[in-house]
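Action item from last meeting closed. Structure (329 res):
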């Protein structure tokens, strides 16, 4: 069995960046991705626009050309998938990593299709795969959606949008403009300050004029086939008619996968342990890259501020290899 210098779990922007950095350093590598290239971006809302400008989304100095001031989902798919083609990145798609184990000095990586061995492993899996559940009765009903792609299915329907971040605000505005009767149920007392600055006044004005109803400091306590039941800040119970619930409550990393790989998780946010100078975890030669580093705090890392992880990791991989070679001599 071939022993890779490095195996990268996740084919998102940061996983691709790690692959490019491995190529530059002439390291044997493989990227394993459970879906398509930049799978999380593929599942973003169809008309989503990034907060960042194109140059802040670039990897490996490859220009990201966009005619719009803020690139959208399709721009990003063209850019990152184009890089994978042009740079002939060694990537296996639609293959899920099931387990990462360290056996002596090597890692054994078990996937849905094969078993691999590698000297180093980078986990760059992001956080978009596991919805942050409300844990209320009725959340498993078919009308409850934790992912939103486009507004057209919700035309002329009574929609409840849960949350106040970018995804919730985008869903509320888009469905409202396609004819939905939109009610937002928001745990906090106001729209999140993290909402894109050009969108925040729009949602606040729609709420102020009553076009979109909003219940602040409120939370859902039950979902039925035809209604949503929630309580307000005075603990009064309300029940409203409802056709669909868009639960834009965020997403989480796969913490069980991280634990089973041997990574320590710390504090209430389950922050994975890593050395911020090398990105190496408490398990030697096992690294983290990208937004997965933030644990439950998924607003901590973005493409633009985690691009540096790839270079940090590959430098440490090379340094460790040189130190091992010198020790053997």
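Sequence:
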């Amino acid at each position: 069995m071939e022993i890779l210098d490095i195996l990268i779990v996740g084919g998102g922007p940061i996983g691709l960046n790690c692959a490019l950095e491995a190529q530059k350093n002439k390291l044997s590598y493989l990227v394993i991705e459970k879906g398509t290239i930049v799978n999380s971006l593929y599942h973003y809302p169809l008309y989503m626009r990034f907060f960042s400008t194109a140059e802040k989304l670039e990897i490996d100095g490859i220009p990201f050309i966009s005619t719009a001031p803020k690139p959208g989902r399709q721009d990003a798919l063209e850019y990152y998938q184009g890089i994978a083609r042009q740079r002939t990145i060694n990537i296996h798609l639609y293959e899920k990593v099931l387990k990462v184990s360290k056996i002596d000095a090597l890692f054994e990586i078990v996937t849905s299709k094969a078993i691999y061995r590698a000297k180093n492993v980078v986990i760059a899996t992001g956080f978009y795969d596991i919805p942050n559940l409300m844990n209320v009765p009725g959340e498993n009903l078919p009308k409850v959606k934790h992912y939103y792609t486009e507004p057209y299915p919700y035309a002329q329907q009574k929609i409840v949008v849960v949350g106040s971040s970018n995804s919730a605000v985008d869903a509320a505005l888009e469905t409202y403009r396609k004819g939905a009767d939109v009610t937002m149920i928001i745990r906090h007392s106001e729209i999140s300050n993290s909402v894109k600055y050009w969108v925040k006044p729009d949602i606040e004005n729609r709420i102020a004029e009553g076009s979109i109803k909003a219940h602040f400091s409120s939370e859902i306590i039950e979902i039925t086939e035809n209604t949503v039941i929630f309580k307000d800040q005075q603990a009064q119970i309300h029940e409203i008619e409802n056709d669909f619930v868009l639960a834009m409550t965020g997403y989480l990393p796969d913490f069980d996968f991280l634990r089973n790989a041997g990574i320590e998780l710390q504090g209430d946010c389950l922050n994975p342990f890593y050395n911020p100078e090398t990105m190496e975890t408490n398990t030697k030669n096992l690294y983290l890259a990208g937004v997965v580093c933030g644990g439950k705090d998924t607003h901590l890392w973005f493409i633009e501020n985690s691009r540096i992880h790839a270079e940090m990791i590959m430098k440490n991989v090379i340094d460790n290899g040189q130190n091992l070679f010198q020790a053997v001599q």
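Note appended to the action item: Residues 308-328 form the longest helix (21 residues).
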